[in-house]
Structures
1.
Amino acid sequence: MKKVFVSLLFLCTLSIPVFSQPLAEPDDFLNSDFHKHRREQVRMRLPANSVTVFFANPVRNRANDVDYVYHQDPDFYYLTGYREPHSMLLIFSEEQHDANGDVYDEILFAQPRNPRAEMWTGRRLGVKGVEEKLGFSKVLVNKAFHEYDIEFAEFDKVLFYDFKNDVRNTHAEGDLYELIAWFKVKSGYPDDDSSLLAIEPKKQNLDTRTLDVIMKDLRGIKMPEEIDLIRKAVNISAIGQVEVMKAMKPGMSEREIQGIHEFVYKKYEAEYEGYPSIVGAGHNGCILHYIENNKPDIKNDELILMDLGAEYHGYTADVTRTIPVAGRFSPEQKQIYDLVFKAQEAAIQACKPGITFQELGQIARDIINSGLAELGLITDPGQNHMYYPHGLSHHIGLDVHDKGNYEALEQNMVITVEPGIYVPEGSKCDEKWWGIAVRIEDDVLITKDGFELLSDMAPRKSDEIEALMAQSSPLDDFELPDLDN
């Protein structure tokens, strides 16, 4: 009886559209005009008689029949607003004509509607939805690319990002695996592993370099709509730091601290974290990309380094604070912390159009090197050491390490400023410094004449941090049942 019911239900899903009502979602996503304008900017930068091809991100498997939450390729989202997999975008430098005489200069191949699949994995826009919501005039279902009449060999340049060959075959017609395979055949891409029709490679017009230059130029300079979303992501992240400062107590775990940050993100409707959260207490803070966050009992005399960022509507923040678990810095911790702050503040104050990333980085490095020499961790400021092993700045936006150029700062760039000092146990210095790890990271918008510090909602000065940590937290009385009974 149960099997008959399921079969009848399946037949109903094939004949009756499901989820016909629009999906209720926030109204502050980037609109279709933004994405259209970005596509136009790509088109303006294309070489004559060329086409550029973008593919959606693959679906990533977590384990067995469970996939990770899907996250669109940032370039693809930037240009389309489309958040579904198994799709591709073509942008042409000149107008094209199809068999019906219609003129177009871009085309999106999208997932088709599928009532049964949508019952399991959620609504799809389909061709009509992409046209109406995303503003594309020419949209085809993904499987139509197989028969799509295009001669890539007739273009002087075919621009695309080279393949990583890490896409699973879902065996669904028109999936990303097939889209890539069909593109390789149609374009003459040399692929020894292809089981499809073997043709003579036409490599001379296949360009896997120029597209990245175009996208770095575009994405490195933020539009006003993007700055609004980045600002919100940064504010959310800074508030997370503030709430943790108030809630911090010895005996908490790294994972618990991570959870408070990420709860704040979700409270503000941030969809994701922009990158794996880094919460390192004591010596763990010396591991730059420490993401295990599994220390169960944070000690009273430790610092905890918290490098986290909320991702809001595709745009991520990147904010780091280092605080004393006990609420007050020890003398050694304060000396290192204040030195990092001094270096960061000098670099932030120097931010303006025209200064180079290299010059900005050298300002912070010179201050840190001089300070380390004064404290006796190194013998002189010119000594090579590993106490500050990373750079000072990177772009943020759709990626935490966003695309952009790394020469001179320009208006409407959004960058991090993040000096740090890390003294692992066993370092060749006085043991009193061992285990101290400090990074202070803020997000900075470059303005016409200077900068705007976006992440100033979270205190940076050591005395301000101590004052905030003395305040009560809404979580002070939050207790869960003991599971050890």
2.
Amino acid sequence: MSRLLTSFIGKLFGRSALYGQKDHEVEPMDKSRMTEMEFEQMENRLRPRIMQMGREFFGSDTEAEEVVQETWLRAWNVRDRVELTDAYILRIARNCCVSMWRGQRTVVELADHENAVATEVTPQEEMEEQENSEWLQSRLQRLPKAEREVWQLFYDEGLTVEEIAETRGITIGTVRKIISNVRSALRKDIRRRFFHLRHLILFTVIALVTGLAVASIVSPTGIVRSAVERMLGIPEDTTIYETPEIMASYHGDVEALYRHIAFEMHYPESAIADSVQGRVIISFVVEKDGHLTNYKVLHTPDERLSNEAIRVVRLTEPWIPAKNKGKDVRSRFCMPVVFRLK
């Protein structure tokens, strides 16, 4: 991240964004909203204590003043959701001190490599600085003129809320509201900027591949596994296994298979007239998707009987394919079909 955007994010997110922390959030409470006059009275009363806290924490009036400004901005944002007490305001101030200290430490770490501060700026860093500067300026230009000018006085010129209110001729509360609104809008834009569409596409692809890989493992049919293998360029296993680890089978027991065959069988009338009977032995391949192909007649007393045997066996599709090493495979299956005259 470039120095420009690092500094800007530190200001925009109250420094804590560099550590992924959120601003202090509170649950809505059923309290009367503090008026602007009451808020200013509390601010004037607690300002010296918060300044002293900032000085003790940082040893600098400049940073102590920044603690004061950040504290009252946060308090202003939650004034209608929580009862603002002295203890609550001082807790916000302590949180601001911690957030700013962490932000400062992160900025130093980003600019410091192996305890040696970088003094040279690479062409890549110059380009990033230029791009980030242009992006920030373009986003600020889309703001309403009044909001943009208040924000520039606060961020670029370093004026306090009170000074901005006096300069612009508006109330302190209005200045705080404008700064809060601009900060929220820029936060959303920065998050969108760093979570680019290409990242979303990359995450989607990774999730899809991972999902397909898991599905290929648990899929009972192996269809998903085959699709993944094709996508990854893995050669498809077309071997016809004669003795796989798990044989192919009909959806049911052997008795159910032969009941199905007996129910569908139509004894050829010409074979009955010629008193032809006997056992037909056929073989076929059970494909990975359970369909039957590559019929062969190994033994038959008559071609008419073998044709009928193939027809009725074809009606038993689909089968449960064979498995080898946990994967659906092609396999050869042999079975007899008996024709007997009554």
